[in-house]
Amino acid sequence: MRVAVLDDYQGVARDLADWSQLPPGSDLTIFEQPLAGSQGDPDAVAAALEPFDVLVIMRERTPFPAALIDRLPNLKLLVTTGARNNAVDLKACTARGIPVCGTRMVGAPTAELTWGLILALAKRIPAEERALREGRWQTGLTGDLGAKRLGLVGLGKLGSKVAKVGQAFGMEVVAWSPNLTDERAAEAGVTRVEKRDLFATSDVVSVHLVLSERTRGVVGAAEIGAMKPTAFLVNTSRAGLVDEAALVHALRHGHIGGAGIDVFPIEPLPKDSLWLDLPNTVLTPHLGYVTRENYAVFYRDALEDILAWTAGSPVRLLSPA
Fold first, then answer.
1. Which CATH code fits 109-283?
2. Which residues contact 301 (CB under 8 A, 6 or more apart)?
3. In whole angstroms, what is the distance from residue 150 CA to residue 209 CA?
4. What is the per-residue pLDDT for 38?
5. Cα-to-chain-centroid distance, residue 106
6. Which sequence spans correspond to the domains of the chain?
7. 288: pLDDT strictly greater than 70
8. Which residues are catalytic?
9. Phi and psi dihedrals of 189, rounded to 5?
10. Where in this chain does the record put each D-isomer specific 2-hydroxyacid dehydrogenase NAD-binding domain (predicted)?
11. Pick the CATH number of 2-105+291-310 from 3.40.50.720, 3.40.50.2300, 3.40.50.300, 3.30.420.40
12. Could you check whether the bond before residue 268 is cis, i.e. omega within 30 degrees of 0?
């Protein structure tokens, strides 16, 4: 059995699970660099992965559309870290009889990163740290968060955790999502408001929705255009939730105070990306779930998925194959 682990950017997969437990004679290959196909060359991905029986993939780093799955004749099992992966065509896997298994996650690291970005923006941490190293002292004014309004687009598990921290800072927290009710918001100590009101009145807007056809572009030009010129937008969820062109325009022309972004339409971010030259931004390379604790669970569960499948009793199935 030939097994490949993809997109191990940090080079930790080999040490975080006991791969010696794979069936005797198994061959393990670990790809630490992004495959070319994730940047638009599907032929390179198909050629690299064609020999493998089992693939372990990291969340949504390398997409697996039907066109790629159909070009992998040896593929018998696909394991993705996490409990969902929008970049995998589950229907295509099912049509081929390829089971897709997931893994657990621990904690709420994305909520923690969200607050890292909010604080970095409000306290000007990257700019002031850079200025200090260059010999300059106190180059601008920072802002207080207490008594400001935090607007959450989504109040699920992560949104609720972000709300608690905002409340601890003394912020007024409001929320909106397509299905949010007044009762559910009240349970979290949050006020439900209409979508436009949230964007027009919040000092910090943070996005915490699952990407779907219904939510794609949910933060569009109208919402960004309604924001205060001093407000910050933070997105640690998925790039597709926010109209990239509208956000770039607002940042470039100073229509909003700044943005903290952890997710991008193309990842890894190309060296010529327009994001790299935008003012008033704090950018991180999709770090929301990249913690040692999560990775230890990811890879150990992935190994368990493979062993369960070889024993004829697959676990954590995401597809019915």
1. 3.40.50.720
2. 81, 102, 103, 104, 316
3. 16
4. 55
5. 15
6. 2-105+291-310, 109-283
7. yes
8. 238, 267, 286
9. 70, 25
10. 116-288
11. 3.40.50.720
12. yes
Handedness of CA 194, 199, 204, 210 (dihedral sign): positive
Of 260, 249, 256, whose CA–CA distance to 288 is shortest?
260
User: With bands split at pLDDT 50, 70 and 90, how would you rate the model's confidence at 182?
Assistant: very high
126: tokens are 């990257």
User: The tokens 């080079």 sit on which residue?
Assistant: 11
CA distances from 68 to 50, 119, 196 (A): 10, 41, 40
Q: Report the predicted TM-score, pTM, of the whole model to 2 decimal places.
A: 0.93
Q: Do residues 193 and 212 make contact, with C-beta atoms less than 8 angstroms apart?
A: no
Give the DSSP per-residue string, 76-134: -EEEESSS--TTB-HHHHHHHT--EE-----S-HHHHHHHHHHHHHHTTHHHHHHHHHT
